[in-house]
Amino acid sequence: MLTKLFRRRRLTVVVIAGVLLAAAGATAWYRAGAVVPPAAPLIIIGDGTAATPKDMAWIPPGVFQMGSDSKLAQRNEKPAYPVRVDGFWMDVTHITNDQFAEFVRQTAYQTTAELKPDWDTIRVQLPPGIPKPSDEVLVPGAMVFVGTSAPVNLSDYSQWWRYVPGANWRHPQGPGSTIEGMGEHPVVQVSYADVQAYAQWAGKRMPTEAEWEYAARGGLEQATYVWGDELMPDGKPMANYWDTGQGTFPVVSPQAGGAAGTLPVMSFPANGYGLYDMTGNAWQWVADRYRVDYFAQQAVAARSQPIDNPLGPEQSYDPSDPGVPSDAPKRVIRGGSFLCNESYCLAYRPSARQAADPYSPMSHVGFRLVQDAPPPSDKFVALAASRH
Hints:
Helices cover 18% and strands 13% of the residues. With 388 residues, the protein is of the alpha+beta class.
């Protein structure tokens, strides 16, 4: 499917650093020992030959400032601190419905949303002492964005989210919905465990939070968005997020407009590494546990020296969710979704991060993966440079 998309939207190999990089220079930079990328990266997309993973972009090793000190940054994004990551390959797009369907076809896998909820994984997200509900209540399903019919106080997200029995990746909004004709959209309604299962089948892994942010930035150091500092260059939208010009979040009445849901992958331009939809469209699971104060801790530990390949905190900590124990298991999601907007989460920024219950699939959360394959060969890099 992605090969067909690539034919329709041929990737332009970008080589801009004031002058065109010579192939030899590009080769030298992409060697595994390099750590600082040039001002504008050379886009390398694996094609399944020469030991390159198909439809994955090479993300070179490097050092970057993780997090943000911008006035738009939330507490959990501050302060920025230096991080060094090794090179890796990353899926050019979200995993799509078609790709996930093939995984299920080959493995007969059942997702979290398709199984009866496990009380032991639910109760850790609830206040102590809550009694176990009856079996009639514990039915397969998932969280669905249902919106509101009028403007509401945005402090209580339960007003626009609902647990819908029968909602799953095949029926993202519930039994009456379908993904027919949406094979190129990001798969959603997948839990952290579902992503791990897919990754094992695909021979890949989940990205760390540091890897994800480094890749999302595409070589732009501390830019507000993955494409630069201007939200809509030349008046053009660069990601799929809630258009407040069409209506107030989370109102979804026909009169007020509202979220249209996911769009096909590759609907907007790629970033500097050739990655599509790193922000907007659907949130993306990453491997790390979530701590609201993790960046502050890392900044102290760094002391101006880059932290090598951080793997996240050993324990979750999130005191911001009313009624949920602050140490309840949480994992990080990145990138925002079609629901993010200026008045609420503003998460279509590379430094934005949010906590999520790993066992709670949602209608706006998907994923992409990475692979620890060898870097592209000198010949493959030179070929990519020559195509410019």
